[in-house]
Amino acid sequence: MTARRATRPLRKRVPAMLLAALSVLAIAQPTVAQSQEQQPKKTQRTARPAEPKPANINRNGVLILVRTSLLALDQANKTGNYTVLRDLGAPGFQANTAAKLGEIFAPQRQQALDLGGVAVLEPQLTLLPQIEPSGMLHMAGFFPSVPMQVNFELLFAPHERQWKLFGISVTLSNSAPEAPAAEPAPAPAAAEPPPEAPTPSVNPKKVSKGSGGPP
């Protein structure tokens, strides 16, 4: 009898302890979630995303960087040796081996891409030189050659007080005006009204028989 009475209170206490623990967790979880939601809001107010700023570089400096990079790529594509192009790059660019650069630019080699014209043509910039939040110099533009236009985008990283090539992208596009693939269909002719029946006033006069003159 004593053992039975001792176990009954234990059975009643266990569910009560579980309910108490669950209620504590239910209250604590929203509190933690709220503190985590409020913390990013404070950081968003104080920390503003950095924006690019114009680069302090003149026209001659831009020409040197653009032409040096594109001509180095042109020589590498023509010779199949990308060692010089790799050596001109920043340490991050040199992480690519010469063989890896050869694989990257293999399509341009197969297309016999010729960039020799950039030595004498003036580039037109579509993105003025700017310093990205990462500290890199970024610019883009094209060489208005005919019939193919050379489009480029370049990234340079500061290294030993010099701008070193970090990223390069070159594509070709047709700059000559193109006619439409199919000739436009001729406009349908306007429907003409049916001819009117002849009236007596325009009928020819009858000639009398046996006489060549008028009746």
Task: Walk me through this protein's architecture.
The protein is α+β, with helices and mostly antiparallel strands. It has helices at 2-46, 59-79, 83-87, 98-104, 106-110, and strands spanning 53-54, 124-131, 137-143, 148-159, 162-174. A 5-stranded antiparallel β-sheet has the order 1-2-3-4-5, covered by helices on one side. β4 and β5 form a beta hairpin. The N and C termini lie far apart (158 Å). The relative contact order is 0.10. The model is unreliable at 1-40 (pLDDT under 50).
Summarize the structure.
The protein has 215 residues and is of the alpha+beta class.
List keywords for this structure.
five-stranded antiparallel β-sheet, 215 residues, alpha+beta, 5 helices
| General shape | elongated
Spatial order of the strands forming the largest sheet = 1-2-3-4-5
Q: Please tally the helical runs, counting DSSP H or I stretches of 4 or more residues.
A: 5
Runs in which pLDDT lies below 50 for 5 or more consecutive residues are 1-40
Order of helices and strands: HEHHHHEEEE
Q: What helical percentage do the residues reach?
A: 25-40%
SSE class: alpha+beta
Architecture blueprint of SSEs:
Layout: H1 2-46, E1 53-54, H2 59-79, H3 83-87, H4 98-104, H5 106-110, E2 124-131, E3 137-143, E4 148-159, E5 162-174
Antiparallel strand pairs: 1-2, 2-3, 3-4, 4-5
